[in-house]
Amino acid sequence: MPESDPDFTSRRAHARQRRLLKARMRHPLHGEVDILVRDVSEQGVGGRCEWDLKVGDNILLLLPDCAPASGRITWRRGQGFGVLLDGPINPASVRNPAPADRPAQAPYQVPTSFRPSIDFKRPGFRTRRPGPDTKPG
Question: Residue 85: inside a domain, yes or no?
């Protein structure tokens, strides 16, 4: 059941750590489907899925950078669901994968038109020229 139910939250065996990452789930009826992982604990995972899952379905979670984890659906409300895992996992290892396919970004470069000119004199400011109110040099 959701976090808003204080009785349910107090009955949890393990503390949950918030996550927000995409993962895959292998389901016996729907095959391999996309899910959104919302929280993780040593023995469970909470998430969201667009498919119709039933309480008691045995599934296999394919989390990024982790070994596949088997478990079963223990609750379902709307698109939200909870999985009780068959074996413990390390919640700290469940993270978004490093962006290896994205090239390293160069440091920020100020566009040429906004860079200061080499001449550091203020525009519109002129040095005094000898005039009627100044003494010559």
Answer: yes
